[in-house]
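Quick one: examine this chain and its backbone structure tokens and tell me how the chain folds. Here goes:
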Amino acid sequence: MLKHLLFFIICFLFFSIKTEASTTDLKNNYISLKVIPEYLSIEKGTKHFDILLEITPKQNWHIYYTNPGDVGNKTELSAYDSQNFYLTTPILSAPKKETYENIITSFIYSQKFYLKQGVVIKDISNLKELNLSFNLSYSACHDECISEDIFFNVTIPVENIQIINNDYIKTFMFAEKQFPHNIPSTYEFLQNKLILSLKQNLDKDCDFPYFVSSSPKKNILSSLPTTKLLSKNKLEINFDPQETPDINGLILCPNHAYSPLIINEQPVSKNNKFSSLVIYSLIAFIAGLILNLMPCVLPVLSLKALYLIKSNKAPSIKKALSYLFGVTTSFLSLAGILYYAKSIGSSLGWGFQLQSLEFNLFLLFLFFIIFLSLLDKITIPQKFT
């Protein structure tokens, strides 16, 4: 009876998964806008989530980056009635540099681009839904420039479960390709000159990089910073004397952009290195003990122990060491791949695949098959078990 009841519950859960997306389509005179929150619902303990904007200017028109350049008004997202949250610094697609008659330089978007806005939640313990009100302000230009605002609301239910928005996952795959790549960097200021040292070389096609400050000019008569390539990993940026040098900005290349990720380099003594290694090893050991006591791991260890007991062959040190070597090298390989991906600027992280609806459906199907096998409803050939 219990087996049949469990079978019914699993089937019910499998076929009742929500797959609808939450995307708001808006349109103004000069742009089309899609608003895509990261989650369909959030938990009361949620501290942070993102909202992705897909912005498409009207054909033959353009709008400006957060630093418009010599002319134009910046594109800016602001929030209203925000006692329950506040916004972080947004991430935008890399803009295109346009120069008019070698005098006026602007940073613009004439094609579809993306804005990722982080939202930090203060307290929603007493809310049933989180309501967010936004205003996107911009200037649209063609033969003339027209300033516009587009207002929109985002409402996210506060429930006992956090559900990822599948539309966000799909759209972010395209948006990430347009976002600047993080590149670890150090810097020094020499009066109005910024020396930017990168921890990796710029791409081969980036012989004439251009540094775009994250802030608009304070003085309309001042000149934009000029960029000089000292080597493949070192830039010299000269600011106008009327402007304050700014380390935050983008390095524009022909087909992509970099975002300097400033790191503080401090000399570390051998004793400190050894102490850190001991601490990290101890943390890893404790984490391993906790992991092996988790319900998803402990039964597997029990099955392994039962196999050894039933096996006629006595366990050998050679096999045990081979098993240890295999597990260790597998995890080191995964860590190495992730470390390399992050070092070249990717936002890849382990566990991100669990935010994909398709991946979770695959896992659910896999465990459903295993569940049927444990109930003797189906038989899996031994070589696959």
